[in-house]
Specification:
Radius of gyration: 23 Å
Number of domains: 2
Number of strands: 15
Strand order of the largest sheet: 5-6-7-2-13-12
Shape: globular
Number of helices: 12
Structural class: alpha+beta
CATH superfamily of the largest domain: Nonribosomal peptide synthetase, condensation domain
CATH topology of the largest domain: Chloramphenicol Acetyltransferase
CATH architecture of the largest domain: 2-Layer Sandwich
Order of helices and strands: EHEHEEEHEEHHHEHHEEHHHEEEEEH
Length: 455
């Protein structure tokens, strides 16, 4: 892979970035100690070896003359993996310090002249396990693609890649001249894409709020600082609520976020808005079973989080209904599909218009809530078992909180990324997610009991 133009959405993410709003995704992976001891010995070298073997991680962004305002991925000829893989020793209590250190490292924008990623080995002074923090620019990957790239560090994935036999099938020669039928198909697809874009654009205009609701808990002047909060929820409990209340596991988790925000805002003494904050819920446009491919293929849904509703089950029902309506319309319709508009804009518009679009995010939504799928198999690094993994999403301008969730090992891991000065009590919000799931579980247990008695 020597050179490849950035897709329009990737280009938008590249130009959305500013010093105070870095546009990288992240994940904090916590590993247990190696059986037999040894701690983090040799892990830094292993990370360097495995990341250096991933071709995508050798790519950097460079400007191009054509198209005007465009950019391309090109292989960095002077690539040095040691500029990207770094060691951080925490001298205090590792468990207490690791999330704080990860938050501080997430503050720092990636160096734009290099391949846009970094990896940090975080460890203590005792043989008590370690952590790996991964940072990938959003232009390089969406959530699914980031997982496909980052998974290359794990023993199981690296071993499979070494032993996989590639079967190369000859490709029949193709003429560079497109036939009439091909041209007609291309024209038809282009007309359909433009039609969808017009519909999405109209939905965005209708959904935009010229006077967004005041939500002190979720909006503040950016400080450039980052804080990470984490929570772990039992997947069995989430599924139990789903079985009784209906909907999907993701509906339950959105309701948990809504209920946690309600608890947290109430404790802060903030007025609960009659119209709840809007969540942007990203949706992958990749087909199930298809290879991850390069770049971003995203759409999204908009969902109101009914924080003013006192009944947890009523909050879940409201979210379930909203998500059902979104799914019925599909990910290519509605204001949430704003990312699809990127494909219709010229490169020069992204270069100059991205900062304006980033500043307008607050008019459309208040908080990002995303689910990132992970491999279902048990994973390890250098023989050390993966215990926990917390995904992290970037903050939009004018917003103070982003929520990302992943399921691994029978647990849902929640990573909350916040502006460090705006949300100094982020740990309290993380605790509120556990309290809200417990409340839903108690209520659903009562409901199930009543249903059984009625029979």
């Amino acid at each position: 892979m020597s050179s490849e133009l950035l897709a329009p959405l990737d280009l938008a993410f590249w130009h959305l970035e500013s010093a105070g709003h870095p546009m990288h995704l992240g994940a904090l992976a916590l590993f247990g100690p190696r059986p037999g001891g040894g701690g983090a010995d040799g892990v830094l070298d292993l990370l360097a070896e495995r990341t250096a073997a991933i071709p995508r991680l050798r790519m950097r962004v460079r400007d191009v003359l054509v198209p005007v305002g465009g950019a391309a991925w090109s292989t960095a000829k002077d690539f040095d993996v040691r500029r990207h893989v770094r060691d951080v020793c925490l001298t205090g209590d590792f468990t207490a310090e690791v999330t704080a250190a990860a938050g501080e490292l997430m503050e720092r924008p990636l160096e734009r002249g290099l391949p846009p990623w970094e990896m940090y080995l975080l460890h203590g002074t005792r043989d008590e396990g370690f952590a790996v923090l991964v940072k990938l620019h959003h232009a390089l990957a969406d959530g699914m693609r980031a997982v496909a790239i980052g998974a290359g560090i794990f023993d199981e994935i690296a071993d499979a890649r070494r032993t996989r036999t590639r079967h190369v099938h000859p490709v029949p020669p193709r003429s560079w001249l497109a036939g009439p039928r091909v041209l007609a198909d291309l024209a038809q697809r282009r007309i359909e894409e433009l039609g969808r874009a017009v519909g999405v654009g109209a939905s965005v205009v209708r959904a935009s709020r010229l006077d967004p609701p005041g939500l002190p808990a979720l909006t503040a002047a950016p400080s450039g600082t980052r804080r990470l909060g984490t929570a772990v929820l039992p997947l069995d409990d989430v599924q139990q609520v789903r079985r009784v209340a209906g909907g999907t596991a993701n509906d339950v988790l959105l309701a948990v976020v809504a209920g946690a925000l309600r608890r947290w805002m109430h404790e802060r003494g903030e007025r609960l808005p009659a119209v709840g904050p809007r969540a942007l819920v990203p949706v992958s446009r990749r087909r199930p079973g298809s290879p991850p491919g390069a770049g971003n293929k995203l759409s999204a849904y908009l969902v109101e989080l009914p924080v003013a509703e006192a009944d947890p089950l009523a909050r879940l029902a409201s979210i379930r209904d909203a998500m059902d309506r979104n799914k019925a319309a599909g990910p290519a319709r509605g204001a949430g599909a704003v990312a699809l508009l990127a494909d219709q804009l010229p490169s020069l518009a992204h270069r100059f218009g991205a900062p304006l679009a980033g500043g307008a995010a607050r008019m459309l939504f208040d908080v990002l809530v995303t689910s990132v799928p992970l491999p279902r198999s048990t994973l390890s690094l250098g023989g050390c078992p993966l215990r926990e993994i917390y995904p992290m999403a970037p903050l939009a301008r004018g917003q103070s909180l982003a929520v990302a969730m992943s399921t691994y090992g029978g647990q849902v891991h929640i990573g909350l990324v916040a502006d460090g000065k705006a949300l100094p009590d982020l740990d309290r919000l993380a605790c509120a997610t556990r309290e809200e799931l417990a409340a839903l579980l108690d209520l659903d247990g009562s409901a199930a009991g009543r249903q059984g008695a009625a029979r």
